Amino acid sequence: MENMNSTLVPTPDTIDKDCQENVDQNRVLYIFYSSVVVVQFILGFLLNITVIHLFIFKLKFWKSKTIDIFLFNLVLADILLLIGLPVKAYNFQQCSEQKVVCKVQLFLQFINRGASIAFLTIISIYRYYSVVHPGRRKVRSILKRSPQISVFIWVLLGILTIPAMYQSFIRCNSSEKDKKLTAIVILREIVFFTQIFIPFFVLVYCSIRIIKRLQQKSVGDKTKLWRAMFLVTSVVFVFAFCFLPYAFTRAVQLKISGLVMKEEKVTVVKLFDGLLCLSYLNCLLDPILYCLSSSKFKKLYISMYLPFLLEKEKPESSEDTADD
User: Fold this and answer.
1) Neighbouring C-alpha atoms within 13 Å toward the C-beta of 24
2) 149-187 pLDDT, tens per residue?
């Protein structure tokens, strides 16, 4: 379980004394973490499931624009990630878990979070070429093969995530020998940090270039320009806010392993667990930033699920420039 350190993990048969002491000492904190995860699950699942319902039954995403297929896969990855949150919320409050359940949960968590980040990145790349380099037909033709790209991403992430089934961050009920830096552990950490930091730099680069391009081609519609710039900037901010603190804390956790006192390790673990909760916020914000930011999709969503707000919505002429 990613949310508890090895000091908080019991043997398969009995609850370790140190584990129980740590849980008792931090009971209030971990109940708070558990509550946050439950709230994120409820809000995120309701929002994502309604969005994906529109993609399937109203927009028929497989017949729509290329970006709609990527958006569908992004929302699907977020839903699959959210499904495991009730188990994680329960584990935040407990000191025991089944080894198989732990590893399956980690596998699903890693692959779905990786997929969410991957599709978020590919959407930014698609928008970058659509806005900044619309004349590069070869690249755009490749990006338009969205079904094939989507399948490739899921298969690749499934292969790269297999190490999570063998050794996890908390070594699901494992022995001391699993703490060594084996090839599997090193591969797992490389995949973990690569899928966060590389997409972040890609997002930053694409966003800067898109904003500069929008400023150059915008003539009179300043409101539309600022909305598009706000959307692009918000994507980078949300990604940085949700994932970078989580990744940096993980790096600190790896660096201090075996080098500091037990109390200091527990402090880092508690911080890591809190930032882990923060990272799930991405599942709630993705559909807002990528789907509801579109005027067309927003109107359809409100008419379906929030019709009482429809009369308050002012008609808009077209989608945001960044969504084209």
Assistant:
1) 7
2) 999 999 999 888 876 666 555 445 444 444 556 777 788
Q: How far apart are CA 79 and CA 42, in angstroms?
A: 11
- Whole-number Å distance between alpha carbons of 267 and 269: 5
What's the full length of the chain, in residues? 324
**Residue 313 contacts by C-beta under 8 Å, 6 or more apart in sequence?**
298, 299, 302
Is 0.85 topped by the overall pTM?
A: no
Nearest CA among 170, 185, 188 for reference residue 91: 170
Token reading at 157: 């992430």
> How far is residue 228's CA from residue 211's CA, in Å, rounded to a whole number?
8
Q: What is the 3-state secondary structure (H, E, C) of 3-16?
A: CCCHHHCCCCCCCC
Cα 169 versus chain centre, distance: 18
What domains are there in the chain, each with its CATH number?
Answer: 6-14+25-323 (1.20.1070.10)
Vertex 178 angle, CA 173 and 180, to 5°: 150
Query: By C-alpha distance, which of 256, 91, 250 is closest to 169?
Result: 250
Q: How far is CA 230 from the centre of its chain?
A: 20
Residue 239 is which amino acid?
Answer: F
CA 22 remoteness from chain centre = 29
CA dist., res. 248 & res. 263, Å (int): 20
